[in-house]
Design brief:
Layout lengths: L17 E3 L14 E7 L7 H12 L5 E7 L2 H12 L3 E7 L4 E7 L4
Length: about 110
Protein backbone atom coordinates (compact mmCIF):
# COMPACT_ATOMS: atom_id res chain seq x y z
CA UNK A 1 0.00 0.00 0.00
CA UNK A 2 1.16 3.48 -0.48
CA UNK A 3 0.80 6.20 2.06
CA UNK A 4 1.17 9.60 0.50
CA UNK A 5 2.75 8.01 -2.57
CA UNK A 6 5.30 6.05 -0.52
CA UNK A 7 5.97 2.33 -0.12
CA UNK A 8 4.37 0.69 2.92
CA UNK A 9 7.51 -1.37 3.50
CA UNK A 10 10.38 1.00 2.76
CA UNK A 11 8.90 4.48 2.73
CA UNK A 12 10.36 5.03 -0.75
CA UNK A 13 8.25 6.84 -3.38
CA UNK A 14 6.05 4.49 -5.40
CA UNK A 15 7.01 4.52 -9.06
CA UNK A 16 6.23 2.16 -11.91
CA UNK A 17 8.91 -0.47 -12.51
CA UNK A 18 7.97 -0.59 -16.23
CA UNK A 19 5.80 1.16 -18.80
CA UNK A 20 4.55 0.08 -22.21
CA UNK A 21 2.72 1.75 -25.08
CA UNK A 22 1.29 -1.62 -26.19
CA UNK A 23 -2.49 -2.12 -26.02
CA UNK A 24 -3.62 -4.34 -23.16
CA UNK A 25 -5.19 -7.55 -24.52
CA UNK A 26 -8.70 -8.12 -23.21
CA UNK A 27 -9.06 -4.59 -21.89
CA UNK A 28 -10.69 -2.49 -24.64
CA UNK A 29 -10.95 0.58 -22.40
CA UNK A 30 -7.18 0.55 -21.94
CA UNK A 31 -6.30 -0.10 -25.60
CA UNK A 32 -3.96 2.45 -27.08
CA UNK A 33 -2.78 3.97 -23.81
CA UNK A 34 0.37 3.24 -21.85
CA UNK A 35 0.08 0.81 -18.98
CA UNK A 36 2.34 0.69 -15.98
CA UNK A 37 3.79 -2.13 -13.91
CA UNK A 38 4.28 -1.60 -10.18
CA UNK A 39 5.77 -3.69 -7.39
CA UNK A 40 4.26 -3.92 -3.89
CA UNK A 41 6.32 -5.68 -1.21
CA UNK A 42 4.04 -7.06 1.52
CA UNK A 43 6.32 -9.77 2.90
CA UNK A 44 5.89 -9.93 6.65
CA UNK A 45 2.48 -8.21 6.57
CA UNK A 46 -0.17 -10.30 8.37
CA UNK A 47 -3.62 -11.25 7.08
CA UNK A 48 -5.98 -9.52 6.44
CA UNK A 49 -3.82 -6.38 6.18
CA UNK A 50 -1.94 -7.73 3.16
CA UNK A 51 -5.21 -7.90 1.21
CA UNK A 52 -6.34 -4.49 2.50
CA UNK A 53 -3.05 -2.94 1.36
CA UNK A 54 -3.29 -4.69 -2.02
CA UNK A 55 -6.86 -3.47 -2.51
CA UNK A 56 -5.96 0.12 -1.57
CA UNK A 57 -3.03 0.03 -3.98
CA UNK A 58 -5.23 -1.30 -6.81
CA UNK A 59 -7.66 1.56 -6.14
CA UNK A 60 -4.87 4.05 -6.96
CA UNK A 61 -3.82 2.64 -10.34
CA UNK A 62 -5.59 2.59 -13.70
CA UNK A 63 -7.47 -0.23 -15.36
CA UNK A 64 -5.05 -2.51 -17.24
CA UNK A 65 -2.04 -1.60 -15.09
CA UNK A 66 -0.07 -4.44 -13.51
CA UNK A 67 1.17 -4.83 -9.96
CA UNK A 68 3.54 -7.53 -8.74
CA UNK A 69 2.73 -8.24 -5.09
CA UNK A 70 5.37 -10.00 -2.97
CA UNK A 71 3.83 -12.07 -0.18
CA UNK A 72 4.65 -14.73 2.38
CA UNK A 73 3.56 -18.25 1.48
CA UNK A 74 0.52 -20.00 2.94
CA UNK A 75 -2.56 -18.06 3.98
CA UNK A 76 -1.37 -14.64 2.70
CA UNK A 77 -0.80 -15.77 -0.88
CA UNK A 78 -4.00 -17.84 -0.99
CA UNK A 79 -6.16 -15.13 0.58
CA UNK A 80 -4.92 -12.30 -1.64
CA UNK A 81 -5.09 -14.48 -4.81
CA UNK A 82 -8.73 -15.39 -4.24
CA UNK A 83 -9.81 -11.93 -3.09
CA UNK A 84 -8.41 -9.96 -6.03
CA UNK A 85 -10.13 -12.27 -8.51
CA UNK A 86 -13.42 -11.90 -6.61
CA UNK A 87 -12.96 -8.12 -6.84
CA UNK A 88 -12.81 -8.32 -10.66
CA UNK A 89 -9.06 -8.18 -11.26
CA UNK A 90 -7.03 -10.74 -13.23
CA UNK A 91 -4.40 -12.91 -11.59
CA UNK A 92 -1.85 -13.11 -14.43
CA UNK A 93 0.66 -15.28 -12.54
CA UNK A 94 1.40 -16.79 -9.15
CA UNK A 95 4.97 -18.00 -8.69
CA UNK A 96 7.13 -19.07 -5.81
CA UNK A 97 10.08 -16.76 -5.35
CA UNK A 98 13.06 -17.14 -3.02
CA UNK A 99 12.89 -18.24 0.61
CA UNK A 100 9.24 -19.35 0.55
CA UNK A 101 7.87 -16.04 -0.67
CA UNK A 102 5.48 -15.74 -3.58
CA UNK A 103 4.83 -13.14 -6.20
CA UNK A 104 1.44 -12.45 -7.68
CA UNK A 105 1.10 -10.50 -10.91
CA UNK A 106 -2.29 -8.79 -10.92
CA UNK A 107 -3.83 -6.82 -13.76
CA UNK A 108 -6.28 -4.23 -12.51
CA UNK A 109 -9.83 -4.73 -13.75
CA UNK A 110 -12.69 -2.29 -13.86
CA UNK A 111 -13.99 -0.82 -10.64
Amino acid sequence: RSRGGRSARTGAPIRPVAESKVAVPGHPAAAGRAWRHFELDLRGVACPMNFVKTRLFLDKIKEGDLVTVLLDGGEPVESVSESVVQDGHTLEAKTEAQEGHFQLIIRKGRN
